[in-house]
Automatic annotation (TrEMBL), chain A:
Species for this entry: Paracoccus suum
Topological type in the membrane: Multi-pass membrane protein
The protein, known as: ABC transporter permease
Matches recorded under Gene3D superfamilies: MetI-like (1.10.3720.10)
Single GO cellular component term: plasma membrane
TrEMBL record, chain B:
Entry GO CC: ATP-binding cassette (ABC) transporter complex; outer membrane-bounded periplasmic space
Protein name: ABC transporter substrate-binding protein
Organism domain of life: Bacteria
GO molecular function annotation: peptide transmembrane transporter activity
Organism: Paracoccus suum
Keyword set, alphabetical order: Signal, Transport
Matches recorded under SUPFAM superfamilies: Periplasmic binding protein-like II
The keyword Signal belongs to this UniProt entry's keyword annotation: yes
InterPro entries, A to Z: Peptide/Ni-bd, SBP_5, SBP_5_dom
Amino acid sequence: MLVFVLKRLMNALFVMLAVAALAFAIFQVAGDPVELMANEQMSQADRDALRERLGLDQPMLVQFAHFVGNAAQGDFGMSWRNGQSVLGLIAERFPATMELVLTATLLSLLIGLPLGVLTAIGRGRWYAEGLQFLSIIGVSLPSFVVGILLILVFSVMLGIAPAFGRGEVVNLGWWSTGLLTRSGRAALVLPAIALSLYQITLIMRLVRAEMLEVMRSDFVKFARARGVPRHRIWFRHALKNCLMPVVTMTAMNIGALIAFALITETVFQWPGMGMLFIQAVTFLDFPVMSAYLVIISFIFVVLNTAVDITYAVIDPRLREAR
Amino acid sequence: MKLRLKYALPMLALLAGGPATAETLRWGAARDIYSLDPYSYGESYTIAFLNHVYEGLVRYNEKLEIEPALAESWEVVSPSVWRFKLRPGVKFHDGADFTADDVVASLARVSDETSPLKGNLPTYKSSKKLDDLTVEIELTGPYPLLLNDLTNIQIFDEDWMKANDSLKPTDVSAKKEGYATFNTNGTGPFKVESRVPDSKTVLVKNDAWWDTPKHNLDRIEFTPISSAATRVAALLSGEIDFTENAPVQDVERLAASPGMKVMERTDLRTVMVGFNRKPKLADGRDNPFNDLKVRQAFELAIDRDLIKKRVMRGKSRSAGAMVAPEIPGYTEALDQFPPGDAEKAKALLTEAGQDGLPFTLTCTTDAYVSEEELCNAMVSMLTRAGFKPSLDIGPAAVQTPKRAGGQADVYLLGWANEPMLDSYSLLVQMIETKSDTAGVFNWGGWSYPAIDGKIKAASTEMDRDKRLALQTEAMKMAKDEIIMLPLHQQPVAWAMVDRVESVAQLADNKVRHWLTVMAPAK
């Protein structure tokens, strides 16, 4: 077991290094930040001096080694755009993204699960087919379109939800939360819906497929034969057996949600990590870009490794297989 | 008695209806400022915003003319020494007195080796305090544009900088955050109350401002909203009062909405076409653009009026000169241009032996107004005139190194002559032969010694009329040679709720809310 865990951890480390290398390779073709940083009046000599100070004149391998060495000590340097420490910037934005992502996850479970059960047990009925059809739209509508539609309807036309921002926030130590104020909660609604829409349809479809499978299984047939009430079969026996893959998928998707939140964040001017990244890209703020990529992939890798190890703990066959 | 007066004054003010109507302006911008430190990054938008908080020795008035600010008067003592008399009685936001020491320390900070704004004071050598309210600035030689440069140099309090270890500019390579990045202490009309990057920066009125306020704002809430659709929605839903960046395609709709108004004009930025002028193009061919006939054919192929009508929805200003009319050095004679004529262009191209000339047109997606449409229109106009252009378009971050590195055959470049607002900016940065100190934007790599001579002469000419005449001559020579081909000045649109009574919208497209007046809230 220990060997297995060590192997997984080694794997994770290599993945992280690969991600960092890939990020670095991308930067080489992304353009020259000095051209963007230098203001119009800066002379060529000053530009060269700036390039040197930022270490951009070094060969790529040296820059990479430097970056990995610093990152391993948790030092991601300073943002070139605004002279703040990158780690501080990301820590500042992290609560906003997490609150959005967790609310979206909660929403997708609260809405997706019942809808999945509903479409499974009502298979062939008009409402189930209707929901199935709507879910196709949900999957295929890009989230920025959803966001703008939500803003148009609920902010401009109805005027019941703010179009942008996070509202008033309260600081609990280093964690700034919008959940404790009225305007903060109001501001969370639209972006959370926009972000969760895709997840809702995904969970709904997953639960539906699993439910249909389980409903055909012998123990459901026996339960039915024993006269167990139908809602008990659906929500206790059948749904319980569907939850395992749903939980796995939700856990894995939190990483994806953090990564994809950047589109929602840009539309709603949600001051989270995604927006930080988008702005870093337009400015070629390499320290922020690389730190973001490393941290996001770190979250992915941790989630995946944790899931793998948990599985191995539950099911010894998986340990032998590797 | 003294004590009583202290209470009586606010009472009187209340009776007169003064502070009872607190005006808040909610300002939605397309982007955030980078930092609260004007010297952290030499960027005009951040500096323009921070002009609400910090001030320079001089400033631009409502007609874009230079007027005294923290300096009351000045004189040129010798060709390279300027003496400034400072305004007495000015206080920083923390109550400290403004003195000559503050000016000396601020100039030292901005001209430091690691300062990103060093280039904004190109000829600065040193400064010294003569007495508490007199400062002398020494330059490397005669230089006529010092005042223009000083409009963008904002003055800090020396003691405050000392107390907070901020005498040197923040250097991103030093890996240490600067105090001035998050804190301010200026002399300006507004104080910073709070700032959360990317979400909100709040300014409140500085009651102790030395100048008589023309604005009636008590509070400004500055919110960046980067998505254009969201910004418009926020304006329509009443969440913001003002934006200086209304998307071109939404202007009509906004103007037609009840309770909204839109202010439009063209700005100082002239969008131009630049040609690669090295002996060989990036693909190794002999460079056909070194033939004046080819460049003339190029100009004839472009129908500026059609671009204005079709691409810019009639809102741009077609240009024959490389600078806008507001920029000193502009003359109407330079602003003439031939009407587009595909037939004539084709004949000229054939005469030059370059029929079907293939080349790439390098454009960006995010630098200029409606740039994609503009470049597509140019491609079809050029094709009709016998050129064979292919369009290379991408974000500025990717395209800029290509253009600066001479890999682009033909490129677009806009120039607003900021921050000095003088045609010398264009000439020294773009037209002069590339060297350590000039021609940074001479991306085509040309060299015209005769023009360089005029620019060099202008750089030390202290007589304004003579200097501008030299600059006009240099621009005429550049125009005759079609070094850069101007297309137009681009439109800008500010949108606001109609409660905003007056806003100063000048050609430099900078927001000056110390001139903004709002009607009282109902």
